[in-house]
Structure prediction request, 340 residues.
Amino acid sequence: MTQVPTFAVISGAQVHAAVAGREKQVIELVEAAYRLHGEGRTVNPDSYFLRFPDRPSDRIIALPASVKGDAGVHGIKWISSFPGNVANGIPRASAVLILNDARTGYPFACLESSIISAARTAASAALAAAVLADRRGARPRRVGFIGAGLIARYIHTYLAANGFTFDTLGVHDLSAAHAEGFQGYLQRTEKGVITVHDTAEALVRSSDLIVFATVAAGPHVTDPAWFAHNPLVLHISLRDLSPEIILSSCNIVDDIEHCLKANTSTHLAEQHVGHRDFVTTLYDVLTGKTTPPAGEPVIFSPFGLGVLDLTVARHVYDHVAASDGLHTVPDFFNELARYG
Ligand SMILES: NC(=O)c1ccc[n+]([C@@H]2O[C@H](COP(=O)([O-])OP(=O)(O)OC[C@H]3O[C@@H](n4cnc5c(N)ncnc54)[C@H](O)[C@@H]3O)[C@@H](O)[C@H]2O)c1
Prediction:
């Protein structure tokens, strides 16, 4: 007879313990998930955005997904973005993720998921940075971060874990306090020269690897001339760049259907020209179908796929289970006899 699974709750502390120091492994998991996605061995429907008429900058997103391969799970991430939290001293994003058993459909774990989300985002950025830079022939040594929050910090950690070393590191943030906080973090971990730039232009012009991790709702960087030195751009916050910049660059996304939606910069560019011929996928780069050019800016815009969250969450679950750390909820599923 089929057993009903136990139901476990995994805390942020347990997630942190499972991924911290294992960045390389998380990057490998994320690459495997991208390959499965490219091979059609995932199901990743549109994210569902819950928005509020009286709080237009806040949202909660549902990302249901299913992934085959080693993970072999279904599930959903439910992630809030309340940018005003930062001013009140708590992180912008908070999240839970439910894992469902692939055979019975039963949910078997609920994981704190802001760390999983940050880790998979940073792993995807560091994977793309390495693959794109190596295929273009050189690793950038001048990095710049526009938007200096939690995601920027995670991306820096994962870039370092993926073999990037930097001579110079730039920071630009609309908030001087946030720029200073991130500068302090970099000073504790880096030997290169660290500069806080007053303008996005100064940062862009002096960086060969540029990370956008702001909460900008629309394009605030509009001049293609700033990118004349053909940098590699990790456009994680998705809405910072004008259609003109997108259309004068080589664009790599994680999933074309997902990324050209919800007023992202690539979506605005599509509306501008009436087609989507200007984008290709990271999977096509991974499999050698596309070679990113050295002679034009290359922009990676990942929408953020639920399959990445599920893959990392499954790994965390297995890690916690293997160390006997699962906190299961007794009698979570209780109405099990068909006729009582
Ligand atoms: N693509 C993905 O898969 C993915 C996944 C996770 C997060 N994200 C995005 O990453 C972004 C950053 O997340 P976070 O948790 O670090 O947010 P955060 O609120 O902690 O930090 C964002 C920082 O950007 C700064 N900022 C806002 N507008 C700016 C501008 N125009 N110029 C310069 N700085 C500006 C803010 O002052 C803040 O310090 C969010 O937009 C989030 O949606 C994307």
Remarks:
- The chain has a mean pLDDT of 97.
- The two ends are 18 Å apart (CA to CA).
- Residues 114-136 form the longest helix (23 residues).
